[in-house]
Amino acid sequence: MSSSTDSPTLTTETTQLSPQPDTETAKPTKKITLKSSDNQIFEVEESVAMEFATVKSFFEDSPSTDTVPLPNVTAKPLSQVIEFCKEQIKFKANPDEAQKKKYNAEFVTEKSDKDLVDMIPVANYLEIKDLLDVLNQAVADRIENKSVEYVRSFFGIDNDFTAEEEAALRREHAWAYEGVDED
Amino acid sequence: MSSASKALLVAAAIGGVEALKDQGFCRWNYTLRSLHQHAKNHVRSVSQAKKLSSSSSAMISNIFNEEKAKQAEESLRKVMYFSCVCDEKRRWSDLPGDVVALIFSRLCAPDCYRFVAVCTSWSSFPLPKIKKEFPTLVYLKSDGKLINFLSPLLCCSTPEIASSMYKNIITSDSTNLSSDIEDNELDWLHKEAS
């Protein structure tokens, strides 16, 4: 459920993503509407939407539709994913590996743990390989050398082991618990 | 078929997928795809229902039908919504195995061996094989002439753990690590000789 604090930012993001008048007149491109599970509407250029393999196949199946419902995607991670894909398209048109690396690094460093974690299922569902690679690496960097408890809270995972099961696993791989960072 | 019962069918189908997921029969990705498919079907069925209702307006009360379609749409939206909320809460413990595996592949072996204790679904992921190129510790032998390479995994504090780890290396990767060390020594000897 989207909290009340989220709503204002979501609205502004939606407005930011709507077509800019100057680009509209300069190059009329087809717009595709994406609808998140919390009923936020995102209007993106076709080229951006085609970065999402899932959306692309949706259009191949039913070309006449203009709104794609994304029942597993909430607005916030979706807006961030769209932001990433827009930049990637610029790099596709204008390849600059160094700039791209810099952008990708900045994109993840400025995100909170929760934002990263929320984006991964979205990138996975929409099948955006580049983003998934970037996110996985960023998450791996953040949980590297951390404790099991830290990783649980990082991903919001509940411990579903019994005390005995967990103790057994810890004993089995006792060597892996040496020199772990403080939480 | 009325739109309400259609919507119920779709809802039941989603419920079925959810149940399957609970039993661990289908993977996360598959569930998503199914949900997506259902969403598409839903869009079609609702529009079909609307077409039907407008064409039969002469015979049946149109308003009544529209009302029903709206209700069905609303109930379906709720079902979709709840299934999403459900996913939100537990998606990382039954996260797509392949995604966690991708993250694991970017971690060092000790991290992976430790994180299997995070939750039961993570404990079922195959642990990475300890590769030949696993970073080795470089040290000088006491005479100072020979450079040695040693896997840090073998330098554990107690011999007991070291031996069990050694067993892990042999069972997970048929390559004998000690021969690697010897190979490395030989390489260096060759380099020193040349």
UniProtKB/TrEMBL annotation, chain A:
What Pfam families does the record point to?
Answer: Skp1 (PF01466), Skp1_POZ (PF03931)
Domain of life of the organism in this record?
Eukaryota
Q: Which InterPro entries match?
A: SKP1, SKP1-like, SKP1-like_dim_sf, SKP1/BTB/POZ_sf, Skp1_comp_dimer, Skp1_comp_POZ
Where does the UniProt annotation place the signal sequence?
Answer: none
- Compartments it resides in: Nucleus
A GO biological process of this protein is: protein ubiquitination
Ordered alphabetically, the record's keywords are: Ligase, Nucleus, Ubl conjugation pathway
Summarize the subunit comment. Part of a SCF (SKP1-cullin-F-box) protein ligase complex.
**Descriptive protein name:** SKP1-like protein
Source organism of this protein record: Salix koriyanagi
From TrEMBL, chain B:
Keyword set, alphabetical order: Signal
InterPro entries according to UniProt: DUF3774_wound-induced (IPR022251), F-box-like_dom_sf (IPR036047), F-box_dom (IPR001810)
Query: Organism classification, top ranks?
Result: Eukaryota, Viridiplantae, Streptophyta, Embryophyta, Tracheophyta
Which species does the entry assign this protein to?
A: Salix brachista
Q: Which residues cross the membrane?
A: none
User: Which Pfam families does UniProt cross-reference here?
Assistant: DUF3774, F-box
Q: Where is the F-box domain?
A: 92-124
Name of the protein in question: F-box domain-containing protein
Lineage top rank: taxon: Eukaryota
Q: Where is the signal peptide?
A: 1-19
